[in-house]
Amino acid sequence: MRAIVIGLFMAGAALMRPLHAEPFATTAPVALVVETGSGTILLDKNADKPIEPAAMAKIMTVAVVAQALRKGETTRETAYPISEETWRKGGAPSGSATMFAAVRSRVRVDDLLRGIMVQAANDACLALSEGLTGQGEGLVPRMNALAGEIGLGHTQFRNVTGFADAEQLTTARNLTHLLDWLRSNEPEVYAIYQERDFTWNKIRQTNRNPLLTAGLGVDGGVTGASDTAGFGIVVSASHGGQHYVMMLHGLKSNAERAVEARRVLEWAENSFQPRLMFAKGEAVGEAVVYGGTAKSVTVAADRDVSLLVNTAGGEKLSAKLLYDGPLEAPVRKDSAVGRLQILREGHVSLEIPLYATADVPVGSLPQRAFGAIYELGVGLIQGRHDKR
Description:
The protein is of the alpha+beta class and about 400 residues long. The protein has two domains: about 1-15 and about 275-385, Sandwich (Peptidoglycan synthesis regulatory factor (PBP3), Domain 2), CATH 2.60.410.10; about 30-270, 3-Layer(aba) Sandwich (Beta-lactamase), CATH 3.40.710.10. It has helices spanning about 60-70, 85-90, 110-120, 120-135, 140-150, 170-185, 185-190, 255-270, 365-385; strands at about 1-10, 30-35, 40-45, 80, 105-110, 195-200, 205, 220-225, 230-240, 240-250, 270-280, 285-290, 295-300, 305-310, 315-325, 325-330, 335-345, 345-355. The strands form five sheets. Strands 1-15-17-18-13-12-16 form a seven-stranded mixed sheet. A five-stranded antiparallel sheet has the order 3-2-10-9-8, sandwiched between helices. A two-stranded antiparallel ribbon has the order 4-5. The two termini are about 20 Å apart.
């Protein structure tokens, strides 16, 4: 893999704060903030570390139920029974989050979804799973299948509730992607996350999302906590033309989670503005070509490349062109040949594919011979460098 540093530059008005100003920090052991429109990563702290999702696993339970609705497998008016097993494991006797559905009653899918998404109700999760599959954990295979389909490569589900299980693991990056996927692909079901309260069996419970009414543009999200994992939250919010997904995990208390989540989201929404880095089709750099009519080909993005930069200035941003090279001729115009990475303070903040801007046909025999000699020389130099 070749990595070519394209540039090192300061974002914004560099003199507005010291060059070595401390970057933003959070007390959360795990944190990720992404602006989804541009793909900019604003904060990344152990975002790929395996973590217990706790009740945030319910996002996937909702997702597979939403798919069942879309496929006509069930309807929002379909009523499922509350079995004694569901009642004991996730209802009033369980001492866990519950919608207090009565044993042997029947509850509509629409209400069970509200139980999950507003109240984090475990009886609602189990009732939906049992109603759709005949088993209280019958939706788990579907949850894992969907995780694979949408690219959650570091996530494994073991139950539909998020109850503690040593093998039920995910990452902050996977959870933020899952919430954003649900928002984009199942908007009608996702909208339930915005409801501020839900009453069932004459018991009113308010939404567990502490940021829903904070005036920060939050349109949904989930909290979770366990003795081993600590307190976590993943939320979606829109502000000033941008859309953010934030995930924090491992906090010490419900109060710390609420305070820190608000502080981090306010920072994200108020500290950045979009900046055009490269226009669509603008040359980003050149990739070396082996055995072609040209020694290199210009590469560019197929869209405008924008990055959110800190309005206070002083950030160290750098750009790298990454590709497996040299490229072997022929190279076709518009073929994907590499990636552009933009790094903030040394951490990847944005990564997008790059494409060849021109054809490079196979060269003549002398051109191919020269290319081979050149590449052999580069390889020898690289090999000596690597051994030092």
